[in-house]
Write a structure and sequence with these properties.
This protein is an alpha/beta fold. It has 17 helices and 19 strands. Strands 5-4-1-8-9-10-11-12-13 form a 9-stranded mixed sheet, with helices on both faces. The radius of gyration is 25 Å and the shape is globular.
Length: 488
């Protein structure tokens, strides 16, 4: 690595190897989406016509989700009620590979649910169902025992306080003191005005409004933010105070050092839900991977900038983040799976017709190019899904793939007809299709309609499945066979 050049790819890879424990209020985020075309005659409010609903892990669980989706190991310490929402939240976390052994079911409380009504990518209304009274000492002691059993196996601890009653003063004190004793850094996303509760943590990440409330100092200007951070440092004795300021970036403060200010890269903002969760997750991963706090803040700020361009409590993949950190080296056509929902919604809002096809695209040849060109003519945007190297080997056997994933991505990107590329590691593209909801699903006519993977999904919402003619005598298998015969 040349002097002055940051190897962001290696840094992100190291971050993916970290192990973190998230302690805090677990929330089930419930989204109801629909279209708005008129105002109610009963009251001056918009009428949202239901289209779909879904749930994701929110609150402290969203911090864990951000960690796990990026590739780090994550576990949760928290509580849920003995209700359907608690069961669903635990299933969501387990499905993402998050350790749920630290989650207790408490029959006397309900699982916190936040229901958001969304139309045209805008949040219209939020309805909260929650219990916010402090947990009992017996529950606190059981949680502490679980925490102490997991603490020796992690690189860092994130405290995600949503003021739902889990983090009592005594439990917080025990959590921070135990981590300091084992030299494990504690990162806190705080709530309320009394920051003395977080005394001794490694880093606090209040937003500008929260910093003003906790310090009693306005945070409109850079100098005011510094004064507020100084006051918070005196109160908490934390090593670092990082104030997130939305479009104005991040202010980084450490006692006896010059404050630093990290600007935000301008991006279109759809929804700020979960941006703080993303920021603290990436800050913790960065520091635990060996980055200095200012550099880790740069990464975390970039990650938070990505999620505000999505709808709902979103996550960030390594490929997305690398495009922001190293824009000159980015393959603009390459997508993460997590971007497909937002892409589909954005394209439909713009009136675009989406075409989707998938395949190995190994040993890219004229037959592939002809099919892709014809597929693009069926709509406005062509999304191509390609199998990962490991899945091609599983499906086709060794020595396939002939061309490695990075080469296939580069070649497909050079084809003008291809607008977006996404790599998937499942045997079928069903999850991709359900997320994107394309108008047209395309395959070659060498497939029969019933053998096209995902045809049921597309047709369930009124989409089309179209089989295109392929060039005769040109297929990857035939080309490989010809080559083997010519060299034998």
């Amino acid at each position: 690595m040349r002097a002055g050049i940051v190897d962001w790819a290696s840094i992100l890879e190291t971050m993916q190897k970290t192990r973190l424990l998230v302690v805090g209020d677990l929330i089930l985020d419930h989204y109801v989406q629909g279209r708005t075309e008129r105002t109610s005659p009963e009251a001056p409010v918009p009428v949202v016509v239901f289209e779909r609903e879904y749930t994701v892990a929110g609150g402290a669980a969203n911090v864990a989700r951000n960690l796990r989706h990026f590739g780090a190991s994550a576990g949760c310490i928290g509580i849920v009620g003995a209700d359907a929402a608690g069961v669903e939240l635990r299933k969501l976390l387990e499905a993402e590979g998050i350790d749920c052994s630290g989650i207790l079911e408490v029959p006397s409380r309900c699982t916190t649910i936040k229901t958001r009504i969304i139309s045209q990518n805008q949040q219209m209304l939020r309805l909260d169902r929650e219990s916010t009274s402090p947990i009992g000492e017996d529950i606190a002691q059981r949680l502490l025992a679980l925490y102490l059993s997991l603490l020796p196996h992690v690189h860092g601890v994130v405290i995600s306080d949503y003021a739902k009653g889990l983090l009592t003063d005594s439990l917080l004190r025990a959590i921070i003191d135990a981590a300091k004793k084992q030299q494990v850094p504690v990162f806190v996303d705080p709530k309320g005005r009394d920051y003395s509760r977080y005394r001794g943590a490694f880093a606090l990440t209040p937003n500008a409004r929260e910093a003003a409330e906790a310090s009693g100092v306005e945070t409109r200007t850079d100098s005011e933010v510094v004064l507020a951070a100084e006051k918070i440092t005196e109160i908490t004795e934390c090593e670092w105070v990082v104030v997130t300021r939305g479009a104005r970036g991040v202010a980084i403060f450490r006692k006896d050092e010059e404050p630093r200010f990290v600007p935000t890269v301008a991006r279109e903002v759809f929804d700020v839900t979960g941006a703080g969760d993303t920021f603290i997750a990436f800050l913790a991963m960065g520091v635990c991977a060996g980055l200095g706090v200012p550099t880790a803040c740069q990464v975390a700020n970039a990650a938070a900038g990505v999620v505000v361009g999505k709808v709902g409590a979103a996550t960030v993949g390594a490929g997305e983040l690398l495009k922001v950190l190293v824009p000159e080296s980015a393959n603009r056509k390459l997508l993460e799976e997590s971007q497909l929902v937002e892409l589909g919604e954005r394209l439909r809002k713009s009136g675009k017709r989406i075409v989707f096809t998938n395949g190995c695209f190994d040993f890219l040849h004229a037959g592939h190019v002809a099919l892709l060109q014809e597929a693009k003519r069926l709509g406005d945007v062509l999304v191509v899904a390609i199998n990962s190297d490991d899945m091609i080997t599983k499906l086709k056997g060794a020595p396939r793939p002939i061309l490695k994933q990075s080469d296939r991505e580069r070649l497909l990107s050079a084809i003008e007809a291809v607008d977006y590329i996404v790599v998937f590691d499942d045997e079928t593209p069903h999850k991709l299709i359900a997320s994107l909801r394309p108008d047209v699903l395309v395959k070659g006519r060498n497939y029969s309609h019933e053998h096209v993977e995902g045809h049921e999904i597309v047709e369930s919402y009124g989409g089309q499945v179209i089989l295109l003619d392929t060039l005769e005598s040109i297929s990857t298998r035939q080309l490989i066979d010809r080559h083997q015969k010519s060299t034998s």
